[in-house]
Amino acid sequence: MTARAAAIAGLIGLSLLLAGCSSDDLANDFGGGAGETTTGGATVVAQKERGDSLDFEEKTIDGSTLSLAELRGDVVVVNFWYAGCAPCRAEAPILQGLSEDYADKGVSFVGVNTVDQAATALSFEKKYGIGYPSVLDVESGAARIAFAGQIAPSAVPTTFVLDRDGRIAARIVGQLESKSILNTLISETLAEQ
Is 138 a domain residue? Predict the structure, then answer.
């Protein structure tokens, strides 16, 4: 490989890393919504501008069923991911750590796996010590459909914070670099009346 070819390959690799895993179909399937502002890498939606409550029902990795409506009353963090996504692997410890920090404070975490079958997703969860449930959305797309038309996931990973009524309060597109932004969004949503 020539030096020029190596440099080009390096630049392509770097651009893919910086873009997250946005080349997947999720980026092309769903559009955004209105009433949003972007602050510090996050899109925040004012309470009076939030859309309808979201719901989906999907099978979890362990074969049980999870309904988003069952989590009403909690602030819910929803993370779209898949095992082959490098940014998803990098942010997994951050999400798990925050789920532990908020375990008894009225906050639930849910993963939405957009690509993998159960065995692959389970292997990822064991490797990274993920203790919160993830649904397998690859076949029905019910979770992705639930988020379409509002402030949609435009790449994987994407992380949402839903208020106690199941409405989108905030979205972070791309890898979580630290827990600080998501921690702030969760605590601000928890503090809402």
Answer: yes
